[in-house]
């Protein structure tokens, strides 16, 4: 019998948001290590690492929330950090155009995470 893994029907991305956000953070770190360092990119690198790794950290906190209010607040932070990561991807591509192709999948994953967290946030506010 074939063991089923937790994947979505039309994607190879896992349902497990804790793992997905951790992998995203790792990918952001790997991406940041490849960005050429100069006076413009150094602060951008710090920003993208902070926002990109914060998504998973806040999701872990949301998962352990003791109240619906705390859960919603942490999910809202996940949503904001994912959106912010998209912004920093854009700024890095502006500062280092050679990073465009490597930034695209990160930007796309940040977009998808933002949409997921927006949907979770909406569903918990009803």
UniProtKB/TrEMBL annotation:
InterPro entries: 23S_rRNA-intervening_sequence, 23S_rRNA_IVS_sf. Pfam families: 23S_rRNA_IVP (PF05635). NCBIfam families: four helix bundle protein. This is Four helix bundle protein. It comes from Brevifollis gellanilyticus. The lineage of its organism: Bacteria, Pseudomonadati, Verrucomicrobiota, Verrucomicrobiia, Verrucomicrobiales.
């Amino acid at each position: 019998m074939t063991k089923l893994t937790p994947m979505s029907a039309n994607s190879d991305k896992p349902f497990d948001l804790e793992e997905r956000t951790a992998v995203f953070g790792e990918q952001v770190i790997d991406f940041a290590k490849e960005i050429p360092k100069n006076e413009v990119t150094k602060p951008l690198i710090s920003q993208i690492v902070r926002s990109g790794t914060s998504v998973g950290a806040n999701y872990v906190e949301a998962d352990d929330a003791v109240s619906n209010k705390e859960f919603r607040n942490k999910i809202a932070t996940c949503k904001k950090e994912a959106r912010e990561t998209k912004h920093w991807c854009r700024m890095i591509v502006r500062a280092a155009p050679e990073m465009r192709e490597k930034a695209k999948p990160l930007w796309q994953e940040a977009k998808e995470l933002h949409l997921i967290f927006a949907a979770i946030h909406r569903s918990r506010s009803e």
